[in-house]
Amino acid sequence: MGAGTLLEAELLAPNRAQRIGAIQRLDYHEAVVLTHDTWKFDAGGIPQFAFLLATARDVNAEGNDDDEVLLLRVEGTAPLSLEADLHAVREEALRDALSRHRDASPSVVLDVDLDPFTRNRASFTGLRCRILGTFYEDDLDGTRRLEFGADVDNFYATSTYRVLKPIGEGLSTIASYLKPSPHPVEQVRIGSVRYSATRRRALAAKQADAAVAVNIHDFIGHKTGLLGMTRTGKSNTAKIIVARTFLVSAQRKACGQPPIGQLIFDPQGEYANDNTQDGTAIAAIGDRHVRIYRFGAGGEQAHVRPLGINFFDPAQIEAVQSMIAEQLRTDGNSGYVRDFAGTEFGDVDGDRRRTAHAQRGRLLLYAALLRAGFTAPQRNPGSTNPYSIVLPIKSELRDAITNQARQSPFRLMGNSGMCAVAGNQIQTLVDATLALRDAGAQPAVEFCDNPIWQATEPIYTASSGGRQVRGWRNLNDLRPFHNPDTAADVADEIYRNLCHGLIVIVDLHIGTPAVIATLSEAITRRLLKHQTTAFTSGQEPPSIQVMLEEAHNLFSTKKYGDDGDVWVKLAKEAAKLRIGMLYATQEVSGVAHQVKANTANWVVAHLNNRTELNELSKFYDFGSFADAVLSSEDRGYVRLKTLSSPFIVPVQIEKYDASLVNEARAAAGDPPLAAGHG
C-alpha cells in the first residue's frame, strides 16, 4: 500500500468526506476556513463543533504529496478580509432602496435584490476552527495504520489546502479513533455523532447515524464520571456500560479466564426494576447472572436475596462490628469509638484465652443490642435449638451472679465450665456481672479485665472515662438492618457473587438515607478488605466494577481528607485493587479535585449552571462546549472523552433496550428474551 493510500481510503474518499471549502488562515493552533452557502447546503450544513479535515495532499500528483490530514473542530465564525466591504455594499443597497421607493416598508426595502456577482461574493463566510491534531500513516508490526498526533508539526501556504466535512464511515472512523495501546481493545458501539440539538439537516442529509464506538476496556478498572442533571440519560449510559462489561466478562469466563464482577448501588431501584425511561432493567440479563439484594425480600425468587444481617450470629460478627463502628463515628473520634473499631470479636483457633475474651465481648455487645431494642433470634443459626450464646464462666463467678440476680441466667454444659445463656437472660447476666465488678468482687473484676470487654462496655453503659456518651443509643438506627433469620453475612455473600462474575444490584430504594448510607458503607468496606487481603498476599485481586450515584455526597473535598472514610478509601485505592468505579453526579464541583483528576472517562450531559461548567472547564477542553452543555437538555446527548480517545466527541448515546440485553444473554449462552419484553 503506497504512502497516503490509507488516508485516502479511510478519511478522504468521496463517500467518506465532502469538500466544503479551503483554508483562509492557518497557524499551529487555529484555522479559519473559507466556505460558501452553496457548499454548506450541499454538505448538509456545518454546525458548531463539527469535525472538518484539511489536507495539502494533491490526489492527482505523482509523488511529493504531504501525507498528513489536519483534524479541525468548528468553534464559531470568523471575519473574512473583505467582509467589511461586502457589509458596506449591502448597507448601501438598502439605503438606495429606501431612497428610491415611496413604500418604505421592510418587505420592500430589505428584500431588495443584489446583483448576482455581489450576492455570490456575500455568500462566502469564515469558520473559526480549533486544530485538534494530525492524522498520518505509520507502520506497526508490518501493518499500515492511522496514527493521530495532538498537534501540528508543519503547515504550508493556505492556498494548498482542501477542507472537507467527514460523513458516514469517514466520520465514524474519526469519532471512534483509539490511541495505540498495549492494553486489550474491544470496540463496541455506544451511540452516534451528534453535533447539535437541532438535527433537521443531519437527518435530511442522512448524516445522523455515524457510529461512535468505544473501547469497553477503557471502563474496566478505571474511573468513569457520568456528569449531568437528573433525567439527562446518565442511568441509560450506565446500563449500556454495565451490559457491555458483562459481555466481556462472559467471554472471559468462556475462555477459562477470571470474570468481572459488577456491584451497583441502586438508591432509586432503576437498575433492578423495569422503568418507563427504557423499559428494560439490568436484571433482564438473567437470573443466573444477576443477584438483587433488597429489604423485605422473602425468597420467592432465587436471585432476589434479603438485605440485612443477623446481629446475633457470631459468624457475622465482622459485619456487625463494621456497621456499629461506622455508626459510632457520629460520636466523633472518641477513644472508645477507636478502641471498638480496632477490636477483634472473632474466635481464635488454638488460643482458648483470646477466644474466651472474644466470647465475653460478644456477650456484652449482644446485651447492648438488646438494650437498643434489637430482637434476639428464635433459633441458633443453622439449628433448631433455641437461641443462646455459649462461653466459659468460672464456678465462683457463676455462684456470685446467681446470688446477685436471684436467679441462674445460664445453663451448664457438662463439666467443662461452658455455659449457655438464653437470649432473654443476656442482659440479666451482664447487669449482674457489672454490679459485682463495681462492688469489687474479684471473679467479676477478672472476668471484665480484658481489652475487648473494655472497648465494648461504653456502648452498653453509655459512659466512657467518667462522661456520658450516646453509646447504645447510636445503635437505634441500625435496627432496620437486623434480620434474625439471616444465616450468612450479606457482605461476604455479595463479594463471593462478584468473584464469580455476577452483577450484584443492591436495591436501596426502600431504605431511609441513614440505612442506605450505613449498609452501602459496610458492603464497600468488606469489598475493600477482601481485595486488600488478596493484594497484600501477592495474589491478583478479582476484577470488580462499582457503580455509585450521588457521588458529590461521597467524594466531597471536605471528606477527602478523612482516610477513615470508606468512600475516600475506595477512591484512593481502587486502581491498585483492580476496582473500576462508575460514579454519577449533577454537581461536578462537589466531587473532590483528586477524584476528577484521576477520572479516565468523562460522559458529560446537560448541566444547568456556570459554577459546574467552570469546574468542568478545568479538564481537557470541555470549556469549548460550555455554552452548548448549558443550553441543550436533550436526554442522552453528551460530550464523551474516553481513556483511549484523544479528543472529545459529541455523541447521542443509544438506548439501552432488549437487543442489547439479548446480546449479553447470548454471550452467556442464554436464549433471548421472550417477544414483547421491554
What do you see in this structure?
By secondary structure, this protein is α/β, with parallel strands linked by helices. The chain has 24 helices and 24 strands. The strands form 4 sheets. Strands 9-8-24-23-22-10-21-20-11-19-12-13 form a 12-stranded mixed β-sheet, sandwiched between helices. A 6-stranded antiparallel β-barrel has the order 1-2-5-4-3-7. Strand 23 (637-641) and strand 24 (649-653) form a beta hairpin.
Chain-wise SSE layout:
Elements: H1 5-12, E1 17-26, E2 30-36, H2 37-42, E3 51-55, E4 68-78, H3 83-100, H4 106-109, H5 116-122, E5 124-140, E6 143-149, E7 162-166, H6 168-175, E8 187-193, H7 200-204, E9 211-215, E10 223-227, H8 234-254, E11 260-266, E12 290-294, E13 304-306, H9 317-328, H10 335-341, H11 352-371, E14 388-392, H12 395-405, E15 411-412, E16 418-422, H13 426-438, H14 442-448, H15 451-461, E17 463-464, E18 467-468, H16 490-499, E19 503-507, H17 513-536, E20 543-548, H18 551-554, H19 557-560, H20 566-573, E21 579-585, H21 593-597, E22 601-604, H22 610-616, H23 626-631, E23 637-641, E24 649-653, H24 658-667
Features:
single chain, 678 residues, alpha/beta, twelve-stranded mixed sheet, 24 helices, 24 strands, 21% strand
